[in-house]
Write a structure and sequence with these properties.
One of its GO terms (biological process) is fatty acid metabolic process. Belongs to the ATP-dependent AMP-binding enzyme family. It is built from 16 helices and 25 strands. The protein is 29% helix and 24% strand. Among the domains are: 187 residues, ANL, N-terminal domain (Rossmann fold); 96 residues, GMP Synthetase, Chain A, domain 3. It is globular. The chain binds adenosine-5'-diphosphate. Adenosine-5'-diphosphate binds next to β14, β19 and β20.
């Protein structure tokens, strides 16, 4: 016997209709590419998203056709999120930090029909447009009077004229909630990029989950700043979750430096912000240098790569901001785990609480996880045994767009994350490493994350990356590549001494290599492949 409840599909357009009806005067504030601040409301956003849907219809796009963006976080991008997906087309957010060849490859692979871009990316579009034959319309996200005269891009229109003539009435269509809504290519550190193709259903379920108290704890009282880009896994789903609860949204546009982000947080009463560690590094650096404090910011989600304990501490102790360490990936929409304590942990001494907060956290309902050994057998949740981390759930990919790379799932529909982790008896997962970054020294494993965390706790170190290098006896030994803070000094010997007592002796790196800057990838993560390339002729001292 089936239940007798209404079978209403979960659709992205429902979120916007809800936000308009119940939080119509809720604010959306954006720093624009032009540099000024733009303000409007959820009702305005809904009205313009309907114009977007009409513009997409007018282009003759069919159900599931792709509309691409190369854009910063801002209100026009938000309108595309809702207008494109809501009308049944697929929003393809492209990461503008990728190499132009990769961007052209991705646009062709996705068969994008319309591509909307911020003017900051005009040179990029000029470089790739001739190689994107499927794109029949190029739209610059600007006012008509800002459209560059001689762009060299045939038929280029401004966004405002593209949607301007369209009616602001539109009946959002109803369709199967499993229909594709948006897509995001993984950074592709190995091989060609592969696309996760999200559905309306997966997006809504993820949006619900993200708002839970032990996840982002979002509400109508929050002012939310996603520093994490809308071109990277839908800004961790915040544009959807904010509509679901009617939160104020604050978009940083292209200005991601510490000063600009700090000013926006203060001016807009931001209570909650989300981003990768490298962005927060810049913010903290600015605040420390200027002796600044936060007004209302009380919590921040940090993920994408391991958040150093020194950062968790600085936020908590100097600024009274709770750091919620999160883990996920493009293939998981992206949220998998988030670190919040259980009731029984609240009475633990500060040091023990910090040890827990450093972990990537507990699974969100909807995400099942387990760790397995080389033989595929499940390993115990004892907080010590490490193994390959597998996940499954309704917002995790079952295969990639166009079947790229074959079936990624293992027996029982488990998706292998490529991460190595421990899980403790309370279900707190901790990433030891990415399986390809773990250092194998004499049959023992050394976590590159642990080695990096110690280095960045040194006051003179701005950023650190640990890689394994060849050793004839031990196979691999760790070295740490370090970028110093401006004006700060530390020698190789001082830094190696700093490791003493903080980790087992045999895990202390064999050498320190100082560099001007650590290379970062398209999503702000340390690019270890590039570091390995740069150091390909490096030999350990004494070998
Ligand atoms: P890509 O794989 O394309 O670089 P993703 O954003 O999908 O981009 O990256 C997912 C990976 O990032 C995870 O598999 C994991 O290795 C790493 N990661 C994400 N969050 C954390 C975290 N909090 N701590 C450590 N690693 C993390």
């Amino acid at each position: 016997m089936l239940g007798l409840m209404q079978d209403r599909p979960l659709l992205i357009s429902n979120l916007l209709e809800f936000a308009e009806r119940h939080h119509g005067d809720g604010q959306i504030v954006s720093r624009r590419v032009e540099g000024d601040i733009h303000r409007y409301t959820w009702a305005d956003c809904a009205r313009r998203a309907r114009q977007v849907a009409n513009a997409v219809e007018a282009e003759g796009l069919l159900f599931s056709d792709r509309v691409a963006t190369l854009a910063w976080n801002g209100y026009r991008h938000l309108e595309l999120y809702y207008g494109v997906s809501g009308s049944g087309r697929v929003l393809h957010t492209i990461n503008p930090r990728l190499h132009p060849d990769q961007i052209a490859w991705i646009a062709n692979h996705a068969e994008d029909q319309v591509l909307c871009f911020d003017l900051s990316f005009l040179p990029l579009v000029q470089a790739v447009h001739a190689r994107c034959p499927t794109v029949k319309k190029w739209v610059a996200l600007c006012d008509a009077d800002r459209l560059p005269a001689d762009s060299g891009i045939p038929g280029l229109v401004s966004y405002e004229s593209w949607i301007g003539g369209q009616p602001d009435t539109y009946d959002w269509p109803s369709f199967d909630e499993n229909s594709a809504s948006s897509m995001c290519y993984t950074s592709g550190t190995t091989g060609n990029p592969k696309a996760a193709l999200y559905s309306h259903r997966s997006t809504i379920l993820h949006a619900y989950a993200a708002c839970l108290p032990d996840v982002m704890c979002l509400s109508a009282r929050d002012s939310v700043l996603p520093v994490v880009p809308m071109f990277h896994v839908n800004a961790w789903g915040i544009p959807y979750s904010a509509a679901l609860v009617g939160a104020k949204l604050v978009f940083p546009g292209p200005a991601l430096d510490g000063k600009s982000v700090y000013e926006l947080i203060e001016a807009e009463g931001v209570t909650f912000a989300a981003g990768v560690p490298t962005v927060w590094q810049m913010l903290l650096g600015h605040m420390q240098a200027q002796g600044l404090k936060f007004g209302k910011l009380n919590r921040t989600v940090i993920g994408g790569s391991a958040c150093p304990p020194a950062m968790i501490n600085a936020f908590r102790e100097q600024y009274g901001v709770d750091v919620l360490h999160a883990w996920g990936m493009t293939e998981m929409s992206p949220l998998g785990t988030l670190c919040t304590l259980k009731n029984k942990h609240l009475s633990l001494p500060a040091q023990e609480q910090l040890a827990l907060r450093m972990k990537q956290g507990r699974a969100i309902f909807g995400v099942d996880m387990k760790i397995v050994g080389d033989d595929g057998q499940e390993l115990p949740w004892d907080g010590k045994t490490y193994g390959d981390l597998l996940v499954k759930g309704p917002w995790i990919v079952k295969e990639y767009f166009k079947g790229e790379g074959g079936n990624p799932l293992q027996a029982g529909n488990w998706f292998p994350t490529g991460d190595v982790a421990t899980i403790d008896a309370d279900g707190f997962m901790q990433i030891t490493d990415r399986s390809k970054d773990v250092i194998k020294s004499g049959g023992e494993w050394i976590s590159s994350i642990d080695i990096e965390n110690i280095a960045v706790a040194h006051p003179a170190v701005a950023m650190a990356a640990c890689i394994g290098v060849f050793h004839p006896k031990w196979d691999e030994r760790p070295i740490v590549v370090v970028a110093k803070k401006a004006g700060a000094e530390v020698t190789r010997e001082e830094l190696l001494k700093f490791y003493e007592g903080k980790t087992a002796k045999w895990q202390i790196p064999d050498d320190v290599v100082f560099v001007e800057a650590i290379p970062l990838g398209a999503t702000g993560k340390i690019l270890k492949t590039r570091i390995r390339e740069l150091l390909k002729d490096y030999r350990l001292p004494g070998l």
